[in-house]
What does this fold into?
Amino acid sequence: MTEPIGPVDASVTPRYAGIATFARLPRIEDVPDADIAVVGIPFDAGVSYRPGARFGPSHVRESSRLLRPYNPAQDVSPFAEAQVVDAGDVAANPFDIEDAVAAIEVAATDLGSRVDRIVTVGGDHTIALPLLRAVVKKHGPVAVLHFDAHLDTWDTYFGAPVTHGTPFRRASEEGLIDLTASCHVGTRGPLYSKQDLVDDERLGFSIVSSVDIEERGIEAAIARVRRRIGDRPLYISIDIDVLDPAHAPGTGTPEAGGMTSRELLRMLRALSEHHVVGADVVEVSPAYDHAQVTGIAASHVVYELVTLMAAQIGAARGR
Amino acid sequence: MTEPIGPVDASVTPRYAGIATFARLPRIEDVPDADIAVVGIPFDAGVSYRPGARFGPSHVRESSRLLRPYNPAQDVSPFAEAQVVDAGDVAANPFDIEDAVAAIEVAATDLGSRVDRIVTVGGDHTIALPLLRAVVKKHGPVAVLHFDAHLDTWDTYFGAPVTHGTPFRRASEEGLIDLTASCHVGTRGPLYSKQDLVDDERLGFSIVSSVDIEERGIEAAIARVRRRIGDRPLYISIDIDVLDPAHAPGTGTPEAGGMTSRELLRMLRALSEHHVVGADVVEVSPAYDHAQVTGIAASHVVYELVTLMAAQIGAARGR
Amino acid sequence: MTEPIGPVDASVTPRYAGIATFARLPRIEDVPDADIAVVGIPFDAGVSYRPGARFGPSHVRESSRLLRPYNPAQDVSPFAEAQVVDAGDVAANPFDIEDAVAAIEVAATDLGSRVDRIVTVGGDHTIALPLLRAVVKKHGPVAVLHFDAHLDTWDTYFGAPVTHGTPFRRASEEGLIDLTASCHVGTRGPLYSKQDLVDDERLGFSIVSSVDIEERGIEAAIARVRRRIGDRPLYISIDIDVLDPAHAPGTGTPEAGGMTSRELLRMLRALSEHHVVGADVVEVSPAYDHAQVTGIAASHVVYELVTLMAAQIGAARGR
Amino acid sequence: MTEPIGPVDASVTPRYAGIATFARLPRIEDVPDADIAVVGIPFDAGVSYRPGARFGPSHVRESSRLLRPYNPAQDVSPFAEAQVVDAGDVAANPFDIEDAVAAIEVAATDLGSRVDRIVTVGGDHTIALPLLRAVVKKHGPVAVLHFDAHLDTWDTYFGAPVTHGTPFRRASEEGLIDLTASCHVGTRGPLYSKQDLVDDERLGFSIVSSVDIEERGIEAAIARVRRRIGDRPLYISIDIDVLDPAHAPGTGTPEAGGMTSRELLRMLRALSEHHVVGADVVEVSPAYDHAQVTGIAASHVVYELVTLMAAQIGAARGR
Amino acid sequence: MTEPIGPVDASVTPRYAGIATFARLPRIEDVPDADIAVVGIPFDAGVSYRPGARFGPSHVRESSRLLRPYNPAQDVSPFAEAQVVDAGDVAANPFDIEDAVAAIEVAATDLGSRVDRIVTVGGDHTIALPLLRAVVKKHGPVAVLHFDAHLDTWDTYFGAPVTHGTPFRRASEEGLIDLTASCHVGTRGPLYSKQDLVDDERLGFSIVSSVDIEERGIEAAIARVRRRIGDRPLYISIDIDVLDPAHAPGTGTPEAGGMTSRELLRMLRALSEHHVVGADVVEVSPAYDHAQVTGIAASHVVYELVTLMAAQIGAARGR
Amino acid sequence: MTEPIGPVDASVTPRYAGIATFARLPRIEDVPDADIAVVGIPFDAGVSYRPGARFGPSHVRESSRLLRPYNPAQDVSPFAEAQVVDAGDVAANPFDIEDAVAAIEVAATDLGSRVDRIVTVGGDHTIALPLLRAVVKKHGPVAVLHFDAHLDTWDTYFGAPVTHGTPFRRASEEGLIDLTASCHVGTRGPLYSKQDLVDDERLGFSIVSSVDIEERGIEAAIARVRRRIGDRPLYISIDIDVLDPAHAPGTGTPEAGGMTSRELLRMLRALSEHHVVGADVVEVSPAYDHAQVTGIAASHVVYELVTLMAAQIGAARGR
It folds into this structure.
């Protein structure tokens, strides 16, 4: 078992130097084998309001240059526990959602056959559907832990069944989701009607809303979430708009009253005992970001997700 | 009793399309009768520091396109409970405060005779004085619940008795305010002198400061506020600078250490049992905003205020 | 013949006040008959790079508040010569280009039957195709005067035949364009291959490039353009990226080395003797704009186009 | 005759260091005698559209840190030819135009008695009226060379006779302007009516419009301007919006199609044989600026004006 | 004992007017004696990522114009308790760290001999080393209370022993720090290795991390900090990146998950019984700030520090 | 002779997708041999005013995604004529100018031995010195064509002999420059003293200033430049601040009154008959850029330089 190849050495090459890969990690082409792949899916044709998440992957890469190798909050050195790589971007047709979704499923399935786990950087939330399809092929139905301001279980919009507002309804209908173990966290803001909540429950989700977090605190939220997901294989899908616009202005459908990045990171770190089989971080829309505030939050979120996965891989290997 | 006309249907017309009215609601000219009017007062000649709130109403309108019809946090569909409309903007003289204040009072009185309740979008805080004059004509002296970083009970500034720093002193002097039931929330930052606090108390206000909220929490603050206002007719005046600059950079006199938008929304929702007879949201200064962060916070605040009012109107009608 | 209803009176209502319509003109619903309609088409699903032009119409409306009624550069009062209105926005499906293009053609045809001439605000350049289809139904094949950094005569992109890079190839193939009288102005930047220019010529366009303008001057460019279009019915299609990024940062595919807004306005004013039957201004992407620089340039361009049309209508009526 | 005290030495104190004065020059309090004063008037209550010019003086000071002592374009070392100082800001009432205008006149008259010549940094264009009153007391009626997108000879606005749109009408009526020698340069954009131009000519101005410059070139414009002003004492008033929004986004009433900063600087340098008795640079509104683009243009304009004055003072002294 | 000279009177001179000094206080040259000096050190050659803190002092000055004389949160009028002044900026060589550090030590020692206490505005964190050297000459080894996202106890970077990542290692090695009483607050984000924490403890610091604050609350953090520092002379060093990027985007090495400005202000106010002998606020990088959000947070932090010092000076004098 | 490997195919992978290399070209590691290398040098420790050019290379890469393979203005397909690659970034010590300059010379010499020609993206102008040293080793003394607002022939600054203001003085002193054939283009703005011009001439430069261009036009400027450089091996060094701040806000020492990007591109294209042996584009400071306006201008400039070189290489090979 060789040592993983880590990021470019910052004592030799300054952090702002070099072609941008996530956390300055090697590209997948540059290592013999990889355990965890960070991959971008620059697709935003499923967006209903402010577009631009197609530039999300490159923005998160540029915003990840400061990430260092040891994660003290989890007490893990993720890039030493596992070979983590940047797998580049999936090419997805910007003019045809169906075609793009099919291509993403193929690419994710293919990548999933080469690495143990994937963290995807979007792109808009449409991509969660093909990602779930790919992950379920490998792991069976998963508990979905979904951080978002919105439910994303709407039905259709302008006749389109697959957009950034519908991935979890489609996933539920397709049997991709464990209906007893999935959960939204951080939802808030107005809905179309009360029926949205009825439908959502029927589709398999319970809700820890932003109002719940405000009123009962993060610790209670963590406990509820952990009970809900139990020991199922866990897929974590994070729409960056779960954060308050103060923490994530660079997104497409911002809603006031969200989580802080500190709260979100805390919740993620509390999942170290759960079996995280895949994850995505979506809806980073750089044209609306400022000083990489959103990009940095997203890159830290990806880093915590990678740490969760790497710790489990490392533990399995007895590192 | 006909059904209220709601917002433009987002399944037909995308949210970013169409001439901007608040929440894509009908204009007052386009409905036979209205219960609640959202009206803009683009006036900022009373500003002592960063001007620009004259562009507040159009910015809040553009930032309100994502608001949907059902408010789950209050479990109310406000636009179904009452006919809510956009009443456009009041024309106010930018070169003469006295003239503008008189015109605003006339316009608010007139509008108040056509609708049940008004939520005003400023403009600077100067406008609270004529708004209070108009509301008091209809309801008698009111409890004022005033969210702000500042007291706004100063006396004069450069000899001007009516500016954005003085509305509540003038209102108190004119007998518009119930001196036993009014309250500032979220005040912080330096004052001119300790006498400011003495005067303020004499003028009829108690204070739940930002320091109080930080130290004792929102729940305690809500309890204090609710006790203070009791069952009086309530006017809510919200200077968006009550929010921390992280949550509301787009304002004229920002002070560090403020409330989060989540806290503010929570406090407003806690007022559902009080009789809200009028409200304003002021000091949104778009030139200093970024990615509509401030505009979205303000539009959500307006939405909560409208919901409070609509629920009461709907309840009265037995909807 | 009644007097046209002009913009909201700025001596009564300040320019920053009121719900935004183009140039503060009446909405089409608010006048009995209209001659010229400014209409928005907030559609950008045909964009290949930076999206966001879906917010173009509302941005141009907000950026047009300073426009006054008399155009000294053409010595015309356009809103007195003809009834000019804001016809709102066309609803176009953001998830299906084909569906959207069909709906735009229907809407433009319908609007074209109600008014004499239309100036459309995009939206991305995809919309020029259905707009041309509609205008040709009324006027027969037109000379197209196309201001753009790009040729927009590419064939397909990701298999899509109708995107913002292809409208004029499709239009040429459909016989919408007078192949002897059409012209690109301001093209620059790299192409895919030399064949692009060969194809373009075959499709019916001559070129006055940005290099031509730099080397030979605007006056020579105007002369060439006027000779080319001759006395055919003229459709003017202006991609705002014809301007240098200094003058129009808020666009999707910016190229260095473009025209100044002063040059563009001059060229437009030089067309007063030509028969302008329709026009569009596209690719304003507000998320990339600053201080409305692009929005103001676009709104001035629309104003000159409206002036050209209004003068001809007024002259025909003997005003 | 002692040597003037120049700017802080940049080889000792970096340009970004130190409390900001214009060009890092001494404050008026720090020298025994001064020849030329740069003074700020942070007043913008006369603005009809985007406010914020009250922050103009501090922005221009911060944007002037790069100015060095030798002006090669005029071959003059202005700070060696004359004692140039920063005279700080005039305090003007933000709530009462009349009061402010009176105070500005007093302050300018007082400062004018202490120094030979003044260059004022606004503030909005309202301030030109009291500045002209002060300069005329000293020099008699002056030729006004007025660079602006607008005529600024309107009559009243919302009943206010003195705003940023009216200074030159009032000045003409008061006999402050030599009616045979005054001139607007760079005007463009729509007007209220053709009568505006008739009134303007009657009030004593000829016009070299932006269209004239585009069509006939700067050299012809310079020749016309120089003939017009002849040998009268010359007051130069520069609204920064004479520049195109690309060159000066940070202003209140931007109009497309303006001058470049290179053209403006050239025209100013061409005035070295004229007797410049005073000058102002107004309407810099920093909240709309980016990367100090507008501030740097304004500070270079002030520098050229100071150079013109200093060269004449130095020549008179036989330096 | 004469009364201290306070800030420029805002009822005479508007807050946006006048050459910018911190809180509009007098310059050190303009008072006979001073107790507390706010001084800028515009130096950023020690930065490893985003530079620009050299513009920090001027930005904080401009952002401090709203500070008023009475601090209600501490119930102290700092500018009445002590003579507080703006001591301008220290000139530091931008091209030679060693030379700059030496010059800063000389300047701080010299200033320290003229005033009782100093609050420094950076500049990058490199400057803490010479500042500590100067303060220790006067007071002996100090407890360092260090607010930062980072430990700043790294060893070398590119062979440079003194950069913005190393001041507290060097200070510890030089014996400037009381090893039993120093503390980091707010650290978070990835490190190079676990050894960083081992080294840090050996160098004399305990840690109240951002995770600690999130999990246990501010009150517990305050208690821990106060126990740690005890009654030693206290030096407070605040890297503005201790705040979350939402609260302080304008900094050089931002990390997600930080403190709110409200929390930081609360912690500072809790130190009123400790003997604060010096303080710095560093790493404000204005090019990344928006609407002065970071600058305002920093200026409020400086204000609280000055208040702590002034109260102690005032108390000692029996005011 | 195999066909060069060109950019990633945009008909398969959208332009916004994929890890950013210049123009989406292959990395030097990914091709067997390369003719022309685009290399970044993210170094800005030599900056005297606004820093940040260390982020220039990554910004130019991100801004170059729209570049297509055929350059119609030169009628050349540069990536077909020669193998062009992205050689990544040179690691340069941010804390020690001397060390960095030595490392850059080594890296440039080494890269120069692997490829025929290099275009460097800075970084600040300091890097021109080691780049010239490397190029002169290969080609002997070169004619330097230097586009810049500044002379960059100053002597020392704060005792430092090698900064971004001195490269061409040092180069001249070291005999790297052909004193009869070098030229500045676009200089403007104030200098320290007239002696600067005397020194500059002695050091071997003639000047085509921005004033010259404004007064005599680009064509005359091109003729002068071409006469001056004659048939010497030519090194082109372009400080992006040669452009007006309207065209290049994202730079460190902006001066009003500069060139347009259209003029600069025209001048470069006019050099196709000269023997361009190396080139750099420096001083892009992204924190001050907006919407990639500066980055796009810089990437187009690099593209024209690469085209000049590729055409000559292709011609030599008889392609």
Notes: Chain E touches chain A through 34 residues (CB under 8 Å). The beta strands of chain E are 36-41, 84-89, 117-122, 143-147, 182-185, 205-208, 234-239, 276-282.
